[in-house]
Amino acid sequence: MSLIARHFEGKGLPTLVLGSAFDILVAGMPPRAMFLNYPLGFETGRPFDKSHQFEVVQAALAGFEDFERPGIKSMPYEWLAGWEMTRERARLGDKDSRSPRDMTPRYQKEEDRRLFEENLKGNNNGT
């Protein structure tokens, strides 16, 4: 994400990265980043708490006004229960249950598959 942000910034488009892995933000050096000290995967806030998520995103976007030079700013939110949840999952041996990554396309709807395949056919025919 940081590389993409720097590319867009080079083209004159302002960017702001919202992240919850401080070491990755530091290593990637995005032009502007807001750090949310929440467990990985919860970058926009507590799950199912729409008002909190909206507040987090709103506060992150306000960062556009606060940055005078490139850097990373910490957001003032705390979610101790989130860290406890991740520790408990690790203690119980709860592993990542997502599908393994591979090159197989996956679609949310059959219509998405159909549109992709039609587009692919059109591009292969030079149209």
Give an overview of the whole structure.
- With 127 residues, this protein is mostly helical.
- It has one domain (2-95).
- The protein has six helices and three strands.
- It has a three-stranded parallel sheet, with helices on one face.
- The two termini are 32 Å apart.
- The mean pLDDT is 84.
Radius of gyration: 19 Å
Helicity, in percent?
40-55%
Low-confidence stretches: none
Approximately how much beta-strand content do the residues carry? 5-15%
- The CA-CA distance between the termini, in Å, is 32 Å
- H/E element string? HEHEHHEHH
Strand order of the largest sheet: 1-2-3
Strand tally: 3
Structural class: mainly alpha
Layout of helices and strands, plus pairs?
Elements (H helix, E strand, L loop, with lengths): L1 H9 L6 E3 L2 H7 L3 E4 L14 H12 L1 H4 L4 E4 L5 H12 L18 H15 L3
Parallel strand pairs: 1-2, 2-3
Nutshell version of this structure?
Helices cover 46% and strands 9% of the residues.
Descriptive tags:
127 residues; mainly alpha; extended; 3 strands
